[in-house]
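Predict the 3D structure for this chain.
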Amino acid sequence: MAQNIQRQGEGSSASAPAERELTRGQRQTLLITAVAGHGIKHLMNAAFPVLLPEMKTALGFSNTQIGILSSARFFAGGLANFPAGYIADTFTKLRAIVLGLSIAGIGIAYFLAGITTSFWLITIITSLMVVSISLWHPAAIGSLSRNFTSRRGFAISLHGTGGSVGEAAGPIVAGVLLGFFTWQFIFQGAIVPALILGFVIWFVLRRVPADISQATSFGDYAVGLRTLLSNRRLLLVLLFTGGFAGAQATMYTFLPIYLREDVSLSPGTVGLYLSLLNLPGLASQPAMGYLSDRWGRKAVLTPAMASLGVFYLVLGVVPGTSNLLLGFEVPGGIELVATILAAGLFFYPMMAIFLASASDLAPADVQSTTVSLVFGVATLVGFLGPLAAGVIADTYSLQATFYFCATLVLTAAFVSAVTRWEGQRQYAASD
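Done. Predicted structure below.
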C-alpha cells in the first residue's frame, strides 16, 4: 500500500474505480442510507450543545470545566478516527456492522452519561460517545468516495447535507424535549431510538456488496499513513481543516451557553437558533460541492472561510438585545438572528469540501484512511479550541470566544489563499 501511495505523488487523484462495481440501484441504496444515517447521527450529536447549558447549570460546572469536557470529546474523537480508518479500509465487509454500531453506541453513551453527576465520569462517557460517532465517517465517506469517483464532491456534499438536516433538527428536538423533560431523562431515553435505528441501518446495508478490501497489515497501514503525512499539499488541507474545526468546536460549545446565560433565551429558542446555524447549509452544501467539482476546491473554500471568519467577528459585536420585526419581538435581536443565518451558509458545509480536497490527493485504496486522517487531525488540532475558549470566557466574556473563532478561520483562509494545495480531480461523464 505504501508503494502505491508513493507512486501517486503529491498531485495525484484517487481516480481508480471501485474494486467491485455496484449496480445503479445498489449505489443509490448506499447513498440514500449513508445520507439518512448521517442525518440521524448528527441529530443525536447536535442535541448535545442544547442540553449542555442545562447540565452546566444543574451540576454547577464552570466555563473552564465545560471547555475541558468539550476538548476531551474532540480529542477522543480525533484519536478514534485513526483506527476507524484502518478498519474501514481493511475490513470493508464490516461496513454495515460498523455503521450500525456507530448509531447504537451514541445512544448507549447518552444513557450512561444521564445516570451520573460526576464531572469526570460525564467527560469520559461523552468522550466515548464521540468515539462511536467517529466510526461513521471513514466507513461511509470512504465507500462513497470509491463508488462515486467522478462526482465525489457532490456525493460527499450530499452525505454532508444529510448531516446538515440532522444538525438543524437536533437542536429543535432537544429544545422541545426540554420543555417537558429534564436533561437527565432525555439522555437516558436516547438509547431506545439509537438501538432501533442502528439495527435498521445494519439490516439495509448488509444487502449492498462491500468493496473488496486489500488485506493490509497494520504495519503497511502505518507506513501508508506516514506517506500520506509526507504530502505537503495534504498537510496544508489538514492545517485549514484544523483551524476550521477548532472554531467550529468552540462555537458548538459556547454559542448555546452565550444564548442561554447572556442573552437569556429559553432552551427552546436556543435550540431554534442553533438550528438556524445549520439550516442554510441544506442549500449551500450541495451547491458548494457542485461548484468545487467544476471550479476547483480552492475557489470555493478560500472565500467561504473568509466569509465565515467575518461573520464570527460580527457575532462578537452584535448587542444580543431583543427588538421588533414587523411588530413581532425577535429574541436576541434581528442582528443576532441574521448573523447566525449568514454564518450558517458556511458553518457546516465546508467540512465536505475539505474531505473532497483530501480525497483528491490520495489513492483509491486508502480513501477511508484519508477520511479518518482529515477528521482525526482536525479534531486533534481543534480540541484545543474549546479548552482555550473556556479560559477566555471565564477571564473576559463569552462573546470574546467569537473573536477567537474568527482568528482561527481567517488565518486558515489567508494561508489557503497564498499557497498551492489542490490535487487533480476526475472528470468522468457520469457515475
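The two ends are 26 Å apart (CA to CA).
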